[in-house]
Write a structure and sequence with these properties.
Layout (H helix, E strand, L loop, with lengths): L1 H13 L14 H9 L8 E6 L11 E5 L1 H8 L12 H5 L4 E7 L5 E8 L3 E11 L2 H15 L4 E8 L5 H6 L1
Parallel strand pairs: 5-6
Antiparallel strand pairs: 1-6, 2-3, 3-4, 4-5
Length: 172
């Protein structure tokens, strides 16, 4: 792993890449140790989350707009913060299972979510709150997705520990 990493760093330097970003899942001690040895440093922590199928969730009052791939990708291009490499627009552009939804709550809160609907599970969640409390908007987004796809498992990677939507994931 170290030899391969050093080779890739050399190749990146040869291509004049000034900044290299690595993402390591929390508690992956071997990778974390290796990358610190290679002078990388921590900027944030990422989590892997799973939610078993559960269609018995109550949906709060809201207006829902379901999005197909092109509309979902257009929203993803407006995401204001850094995205994990697994959730970069290029990831979603090269698959046919990209979906999304927009929710609007009666109090004016509004947000959207992009995800992949694969055969047996949902993955690659990107949530964004445009207005309102991210935990509340995130909850409404997640509940709607789980109610719409009640038989699908959910597996999503690289959710930052400081993501304002994280309480919505924990509440489910």
């Amino acid at each position: 792993g170290e030899a391969m990493s050093r080779h890739l760093l050399t190749m990146s330097a040869d291509l004049s890449h000034g900044r290299i970003i690595l993402e390591v899942i929390k508690d992956n001690l071997p990778a974390h140790t290796l990358f610190k040895k290679l002078a990388f440093y921590e900027t944030r922590q990422l989590l892997v989350l799973r939610h078993p199928p559960n269609g018995a969730l109550d949906i709060p009052p809201c207006t829902i707009t379901w999005l197909e791939k092109d509309a979902a990708l257009a929203l993803l291009d407006t995401y204001p913060g850094p995205l994990a490499w697994t959730n970069q627009p290029e990831t979603f552009q090269h698959v046919d299972d990209t979906r999304g939804l927009i929710v609007e709550l009666p109090d004016g809160s509004r947000g959207w979510m992009i995800f992949r609907k694969q055969t047996f599970y949902l993955s690659h969640f990107v949530l964004h709150t445009e207005q309102g409390d991210p935990a509340e908007v995130g909850h409404v987004l997640l509940v709607n997705v789980h109610r719409h796809f009640p038989m699908l498992d959910t597996h999503t990677e690289n959710i930052a520990t400081d993501d304002p939507h994280l309480p919505a994931f924990w509440n489910l």
